[in-house]
Design goal:
With about 250 residues, the protein is mostly helical. It has one domain. Strands 1-2 form a two-stranded antiparallel ribbon. The longest helix has about 35 residues.
């Protein structure tokens, strides 16, 4: 059977997606672990010391991938929330709900590691820089999405209300990305560009990209694991979930 002949729409049903996610999680988890070990080895032991920042710059091997993932996950969350809102797709709404905690964790890590980097670099744990402030707003948007969804008892109404917040909040992502270009900020510009290439040494760039892939694999794995829990919670009255949990029919 060719790849194009596979009916991928059948996996839009929670019952069919649940076992598929279960099979993918161990592989993604193992991949995340291997990539993380390789990335840390590159970043901490192989990459040279920065001429200006010294070894303090090595926080970027955690900070930058976390910051990237905080934005990517939000856009993915908003996308799936919009799909659920427009097409009344249950699995899409569940996926948006499952992505939110992962995005909030990545945003918190980005802010925390940014503070650790900012202290020796700027002499302060926090400054009201445009990028830092917009990243903090992103954390509030994640928290707001999860809080709003939890505050509404009816799940379908909660999905719709949270989806609207996610869609509106997506405007903050380009603000984060372009903030160093639009405003005069303390935060340094991007060292990696699709048009200009990279200004980093090859071992530094390799370590950061490997860590980014590790964060990708980790976030997908934990989001799928959380999605499986959400599916069981929402579909608990169906026959297949009762059979999955070994409950009496």
């Amino acid at each position: 059977m060719q790849f194009s002949e596979v009916n991928w729409f059948k996996y839009a049903a929670p019952q069919r997606f649940y076992p598929l996610a279960g099979k993918a999680i161990p592989w993604l988890g193992a991949l995340a672990l291997l990539l993380c070990m390789a990335g840390l080895a590159l970043g901490l032991f192989i990459a040279p010391t920065d001429a200006q920042q010294g070894d303090a710059y090595r926080i970027i091997f955690i900070h930058v991938p976390a910051a990237w993932m905080s934005m990517v996950i939000y856009l993915a969350m908003a996308f799936w929330a919009a799909i659920g809102l427009v097409f009344n797709a249950r699995l899409a709404a569940m996926f948006a709900t499952a992505l939110a905690p992962s995005g909030a964790v990545m945003t918190f890590i980005a802010l925390w590691t940014g503070a650790l980097w900012g202290r020796p670099t700027w002499g302060a744990w926090w400054v009201w820089d445009a990028r830092l402030t917009s990243e903090l707003v992103l954390l509030f948007l994640y928290i707001g999405f999860m809080s709003l969804h939890a505050a509404i008892d009816d799940v379908r109404r909660a999905d719709r209300a949270a989806a609207l917040l996610a869609i509106v909040g997506a405007v903050n992502v380009p603000i984060i990305y372009f903030s160093v270009k639009w405003w005069n900020t303390l935060h340094q510009g991007s060292s990696v560009s699709f048009t200009k290439g990279s200004s980093m040494a090859a071992p530094m760039l390799a370590g950061m990209l490997v860590m980014a892939l590790a964060f990708w694999a980790y976030c997908i794995a934990v989001s799928l694991a959380r999605l499986r829990v959400v599916i069981l919670e929402r579909e608990q009255h169906t026959q297949w979930v009762r059979a999955e949990l070994g409950a009496p029919r």
